[in-house]
Amino acid sequence: MEKPGRNDPCYCGSGQKYKKCHMPLDQQKEKEKRDWLQAAHFLNRDFMLFAREERFAADFATALPFYWNKLYTLDNAEEMSQAEALRFFDWFALDYTLATGGLLAEIYRQEKWEDLSSVQQQVLEKWLQEAGASWAYTLTDYDADKLYLQDFLFGESFVVEEPGGRGVVEIGEVILARLVPMYDHWEFSTSAAYLPADEIADLKEKLIAAQETMPQATQIEFMRRNSHLLVHHALAQAQRKGRPPVARLDPDRPDKMTQKQKIVRQVKRRLA
Ligand SMILES: [Zn+2]
Q: How far is the CA of 105 from the centre of ligand 1 (A)?
């Protein structure tokens, strides 16, 4: 929406000048949104650094092959592409149950809470309460950068804003991502993966079977404990179709060693 000038009539039709009517409220909202996005950016970065602390190295060593169904292990962790490393760390921080029993993000909250600004605290709290697990969502419709998604298993609807739009994903296909609340909309936490129509296969049956093994779990507990199944499914489907399931096995991989991969290598060195 085009904003009126200070002395123009307000868009709400009150007949007042904009500066006397909705301008102060609009400015406050814009500032809130800026602060929110800044806090989210800080937390994303700080989470990643926290996840790489030495005390989590043993968990990292267990979690990595578990998530990748052994296609990545400590021995070749540095060969993850940047997108793979981001997806892995996102899952490791927010879905993976550490050997001590909790989530890394919860430990982060306990230890860092006092150091965070009030906006950072708000954002963190909202993420911990409302962000789902890394999960599967069916694309039901789209409009430029707005994607209309439906939870693949539970059926809830979401509108996600994605600057890159739907990319190559067609309606009815499945996007693998974590949805996080960002001020007034949902976003993907990191670059999403997707399942083409003919690779969705028996995914729903697999998830329903997993559900039957933990009938007492809440929806979010269930999602966190089983989000790796979605990754394993996607990897198996890629292999079945003759595609390299991970960047490491792609003979034509375009990317070179990135900063993120160097950090993975540091974690590995600390463990050695
Ligand atoms: Zn107004």
A: 41
Structure pTM?
0.85
pLDDT in tens, 1-48: 578 899 999 999 999 999 999 999 999 999 999 999 999 989 988 988
How many CA atoms does the CB half-sphere of 57 hold within 13 Å? 14
Distance 11 CA to ligand 1 centre (A): 6
Q: Output the CA 63–ligand 1 centroid distance in Å.
A: 53
pLDDT tens digits, one per residue of 159-184: 999 988 899 999 999 999 999 998 88
Q: How many angstroms is it from 21 CA to the middle of ligand 1? A: 4
